[in-house]
Specification:
single chain, 302 residues, alpha+beta, SH3 type barrels, 2 domains, 5-stranded antiparallel β-sheet, 5 strands
Length: 302
């Protein structure tokens, strides 16, 4: 008796036929596709609506508010300080700024210094139709310059930035070139003993009054070895002790001894002692200082 045909087989056969048709259709489509390099892309034009005169005025007004934000902050802080309007709640201006605004002493004074610079730049920028600073960090390097140099530095930085508001890095580079242009030649000598003078340079924070040995003489700076390492210091932040050659040699020996003990990794209290030696304003150790340093050397150096 003949076997009835299988429904499953028919279904499979139908599916195979459909798959083949689909594949053939796809191949046809691929073969008929246009070369991408010759395809035309249609882009819809977007109409840009011009600002009305009132909108242009509003935009300029708001841009000026953004530009002057840090200036207004610095100006207000200066008035709060000068009139002592903090005195009813705080003993010092620094305490008031920390509690009221979350500012460190440095932050507050940076804003006040920046406000003074901004005020100096307003006239020159309006005169030459230049962009004004929009952040404190953009004018921070300029605070080191004289008022006429501040204007020169900002105009030059805007030019370098292609007419846009320059970054703090661009301003710093321009200021550095101006300072190098006005600096006297480097007259320091190797192994000369110098004192570090901070002069509001945050990079030298904590190093004020430290003495050091000149280990490298550069064009506008010196590499100075002090009690906890070596630092590149600009000439404006150095002051010679004018020690005799024999005194310089003696201080070189003391500096090397302090460095060896410091890098031995002793506890903080000992480091404080070494720091005190690193701020001596004399070319010798007292008997007690010599005994303590010698004891530390025995403890640290094998």
């Amino acid at each position: 008796m003949p076997k009835p045909p299988s429904r499953r087989s028919k279904a499979t056969s139908g599916a195979s036929t459909d798959s083949a048709s689909a594949a053939n259709s796809a191949n046809e489509d691929i073969s008929q596709q246009v070369d991408p390099s010759s395809a035309t892309i249609t882009v819809s034009a977007v109409e840009v609506t011009e600002l009305t005169q009132e909108e242009q005025s509003d935009r300029l007004h708001l841009e000026r508010k953004v530009e002057r934000a840090f200036f207004e902050a610095g100006k207000a802080l200066a008035e709060l300080r000068d009139r002592r309007l903090y005195r009813s709640s705080h003993r010092t201006f620094e305490d008031y700024c920390r509690d009221r605004f979350g500012h460190s002493r440095r932050q507050s004074y940076l804003l006040m210094d920046a406000a003074v610079v901004f005020d100096n730049l307003v006239e020159i920028c309006d005169q030459f139709d230049h962009k004004l600073p929009t952040a404190e960090g953009q004018v921070r390097p300029i605070t080191k310059l004289e008022p006429h140099e501040q204007q020169e530095a900002w105009l030059r930085a805007v030019e370098v930035a292609g007419g846009k508001v320059p970054t703090g890095r661009i301003v710093k580079d321009v200021v550095q070139r101006i300072m190098e242009r006005t600096q006297v030649p480097n007259t320091y000598q190797l192994e000369e003993v110098c004192q570090i003078v901070v002069k509001d340079n945050p990079e030298l924070r904590g190093k004020g009054s430290c003495w050091g040995i000149v280990s490298q003489v550069n064009e506008f700076s010196c590499t100075v070895k002090i009690w906890d390492g070596e630092y590149a210091v600009g000439l404006q932040h150095l002051k010679s002790y004018n020690y005799l050659p024999a005194e310089c040699q003696q201080m070189q020996v003391i500096c090397d001894r302090i460095n060896r003990v410091y890098w031995g990794g002793l506890e903080e209290s000992v480091q404080r002692f070494l720091e005190s030696l690193g701020k001596l304003n004399r070319a010798y150790l007292t008997d007690l200082e010599e005994k303590v340093l010698s004891l530390l050397e025995l403890e640290i150096i094998p």
